[in-house]
Task: structure prediction
Amino acid sequence: MMARHELLGGLIQVYRRNGRYWHCSASIDGRQHRSTTGEEDLSLAKQFAEDSFIGLRGKARAGLLVNEKTFRQAADQFLKEYEVITEGQRSERWVQGYEIRLRLHLLPFFRQGAGISPAPDRNV
Result:
């Protein structure tokens, strides 16, 4: 059974899965945000969760929270467009190979609902 604690009147949940670290989750603007606290101690995990929540809420109010697309959404869009883009250049079997690799390898690797953050602008 998973240990679970609520903070700030239920706005934040701190819980431990089967591992040694505590995790936290909170809903901000109707979207669920989850992360690991990286802490083994419950009191430190609670402090991290509160700080994280306050930071996220501040970013949301300032309009700085990015509403990320999930990997599944990006993969679905890729599959819709790839067949059209490669029409006449790649065989149907080639396109099916990409669909199979996405379904069997990539989608299970990227957990359900994982967001895709945009790459930061950097001079390389």
